[in-house]
Amino acid sequence: MEPLVLFNALTTRLLFALHSLVGVWRVTEVKKEPQFWLLALLQLPLALETVLTLKKRRGRGYPGFSPAIFFYLTSIMPSLWLLEMHHETQYCSNQEQNTSSKEDFNQNHIMNNYNTGTEALLETAKHFVNNLSTVCEEVWTLGLHQTFLLLLIIGRWLLPIGGEITRDQLSQLLLIFVGTAADILEFTSETLEERNVRNSPELVYAILTIWSWSMLQFPLDLAVQHFVCPSSVTSKGFISLFFCQYSADLWNIGISLFIQDGPFLVLRLILMIYFKVINQMLVFFAAKNFLVVILQLYRLTVLVLDVQASLRKQQQSLKGEDSLLSQPGECGLSLRIRDDEVTEDASIPLEDSQGTGEIC
Questions:
Q1: Which of 6, 106, 203, 212 can bridge 59 by disulfide, Cβ–Cβ 3.0-4.6 Å?
Q2: What stretches pass through the bilayer (predicted)?
Q3: In a shared domain, residues 232 and 220
Q4: Is 186 exposed, middle or buried (0-12, 13-18, 19+ CB in 10 A)?
């Protein structure tokens, strides 16, 4: 089991590093400036984290937070920012270019049949890389966004479980990530494809900022972890019991209101109201974000009322126990004696050992 854990930990981080390098390579191809290869230095924290995790924790993760995913975000997101800000459209090759490219590939494939296997493999790889360079910019950027989100989900699945998270909680987290990734991808592709948005650098900066902010939820695991509240928490008041009993629900509500649906709704309303950017999909997803925000606020209200009701019941039970303890005892002992069918209640007074009086 231990070798499998080490293999999964190392393989996942290598996939992260490879994808980041592809993003850096694409930036250098678009910008035509080799100094952008310096973006590859952003992978140094991921490499350091890999060494420390493999050595200190034997590949296991950390409780509540995934440094590998966080450093992967910091290494790939600058490349995606630069690609999105490079809005000069690189047009796709026309049909004649595609046809000639296919003919060249077929000719090379025929010529490679006469060469050795190694030379044929190298020629095929070289031709494949050349074809990748001719793919239009919009397709490349969208493909990097899609593979980025898919790799986040797959990588979180492959990373060894660490801390207190269980496999059941991990499956819940992955399902949450799938829905979150789809919403984030729709947010960026739907807003940035508008011509009015592309003509305004401030809007592009705002969209990318909110997109970057929404990505910070992926390294967190607290949205599915449930903690057992000790009995002493109930005596500390409403706030302590509320945050302890519903910590996972509060994380979900907070992420939705302040990291994803809330900021998405605000930006979409600004686009529709102030910049007059209105289309069917924008209106639909704005309505969807509005419903999610309202439902999360309703859920928060339900949780508050539930904690108040539980505290009220606890206080009533404590008052009942205090009233029973404060009642004076009866100065007599009631005995019920049964003689055939006759039952009598006799109260026999008791005296103390000194004969001083009754015990009450």
A1: 6
A2: 61-81, 250-275
A3: no
A4: middle
Domain-located, residue 336: no
Radius of gyration over every alpha carbon of the chain, rounded to an integer in angstroms = 33
DSSP assignment of 61-120, as one string?
-BTTB-HHHHHHHHHHHHHHHHHHH--S--PPP-HHHHHHHHHHHHHHHHHHTTS-HHHH
Residue 122 has pLDDT above 60, yes or no: yes
| Shared-domain flag, residues 198 and 280 | no
Same-domain pairing of 219 and 280: no
Q: What is the pTM of this model?
A: 0.76
Cα(120)–Cα(58) distance, integer angstroms = 41
Average pLDDT for 309-323: 72
For the cut 90, the answer to whether the pLDDT of residue 299 exceeds it is: yes
> Is residue 128 exposed (0-12), middle (13-18) or buried (19+ Cβ within 10 Å)?
exposed
- Position 353 confidence tier, pLDDT thresholds 50, 70, 90: very low
> Count of domains in the chain?
2
Same domain assignment for residues 60 and 178: yes
The proportion of the chain whose per-residue pLDDT surpasses 70, expressed as a percent, equals 71
Is the pLDDT at 331 greater than 60? The verdict is no
Look at residues 190, 224, 258 and tell me which one is the last residue of a structural domain: 224
> What's the sign of the alpha-carbon dihedral 264, 224, 150, 76?
positive
pLDDT band at 268 (very low <50, low <70, confident <90, very high): very high
Range of the domain at 206: 1-88+137-224
Domain assignment present for 106:
no
Residues 187 and 313 in one domain: no
Q: Of 180, 207, 224, which closes a domain?
A: 224
The pLDDT, as a whole number, for residue 286 is 94
Same domain for 75 and 188, yes or no, is yes
Say yes or no: 305 and 160 in one domain. no
Q: What is the pLDDT of residues 62-107, one digit of tens each?
A: 877 889 999 999 999 999 999 998 765 444 544 434 434 444 544 4
Among all chains, which residue has been given the structure tokens 């293999």?
Answer: 7
Q: Give the DSSP H/E element, type plus range, for residue 280.
A: helix 280-326
